[in-house]
């Protein structure tokens, strides 16, 4: 069911563990609007349900995000993908990979799961057309062996959506 | 003066009623002028049938010790008692601040009040830990609890209305945006963003950028800062 190879990653460092526990506590106290963390005992993989914001193309539609944390989180970005079915969006590939700079080049250790979620919802909300990226088929074919989106050389060309 | 008596707690001991000092009762209104002597109660404790006292400066008001005697025996169980005690202790500072306002408004200082709170708390705690178990016990938990909770709520509301500025400022603790813990060896970047020393080091090593504003940074572009303390 999961479309990623991230399972083979290293266990969280002590720093990463402590920080994720803090984030989880903060999330429980103050979750970002429209998101629901599905409780598991796995700190390294969060499954988060997102509901499309009212008044947008995705209103009331439910999707699931899978967030995998690397050993050296937050120095490294988490891997964030949509579980099947991924929303139809010009920057979201049918395999769930998301073309969003903060998940790759522009990640900062001061960002949080919560701030990433808000960015993703913002990206969904600003979409004006429900369509796949132009190069969807080529990209998805390329990823068939379970490549992580973090290995992709992304080209962030669109700052509107 | 409003007589605000916590029925959950033993009343004044007759022999103590005119004593020079006494332990404070956490839920009885009392002024900040009460002097508290923790030793005093110890001397009387343990006497058969003696009820631990709450002599709290209310001597001038008409507390009928005999009448209160009936209300003493309200601890339904040890568990109920300890709950009550915890609740009472939690409410304590609230109560004292409120009373300070009612009775000693001319007093300018909040500091002495705070001190007396501490004393009361310690004293009450010590005393009540050793509440005799030979008291008659009547189970009135159900009748008692709602009342007490309402009472506590009322007090909290009044406090927030009356004395918000009296709260002594707490030392601020700042959180590192990278590790989310309180800052350890606070360090500032040249762009003015503050992190733990080790966190900014690791961040620059990983990304050569400020985690907050993404400004390009090298290992020389941050330094320790020594934040002032409140003293």
A few lines on this structure:
The complex is a heterodimer of chains A (161) and B (231). Chain A is an alpha+beta fold.
Question: In order across it, which strands form the biggest sheet of chain B?
Answer: 2-1-3
Q: What would the average pLDDT of chain A be, to the nearest integer?
A: 91
Order of helices and strands of chain A: HEEEEHH
Helix content of chain B: 25-40%
Question: Number of helical runs of chain B?
Answer: 6
Helix tally of chain A? Answer: 3
Strand order of the largest sheet of chain A: 1-2-3-4
**For the CA atoms, what is the radius of gyration of chain B?**
25 Å
Please name the two chains that share the biggest interface, counting residues whose Cβ lies under 8 Å from a Cβ on the partner chain. Answer: A-B, 15 and 15 residues
Low-confidence stretches of chain B: 14-59, 91-105, 107-129
Number of strands of chain A: 4
Largest sheet of chain B: 3 strands, antiparallel
Order of helices and strands of chain B: HHHHHEEHE
Spatial separation of the terminal alpha carbons of chain A? 28 Å
Assembly form of the protein = heterodimer
- Residues in helices of chain A, as a percent range: 10-25%
Give the structural class of chain B: mainly alpha
Structural class assignment of chain A: alpha+beta
Please characterize this protein's 3D structure:
Chain A is built from three helices and four strands, in the order αββββαα. By secondary structure, chain A is of the alpha+beta class. Chain A has helices spanning 14-29, 113-125, 136-142, and strands at 35-38, 45-51, 62-68, 79-82. A four-stranded antiparallel beta sheet of chain A has the order 1-2-3-4, covered by helices on one side. Chain B is mainly alpha-helical and 231 residues long. Chain B has helices spanning 38-44, 65-71, 78-103, 111-129, 141-162, 197-207; strands at 186-189, 194-196, 222-224. A three-stranded antiparallel beta sheet of chain B has the order 2-1-3. Chain A binds chain B through residues 15, 18-19, 22-23, 26, 72, 74-76, 106-110, and chain B through 177-181, 199, 202-203, 205-207, 209, 211-212, 214. Chain A: Keywords: ATP-binding, Nucleotide-binding, Transferase, Ubl conjugation pathway.
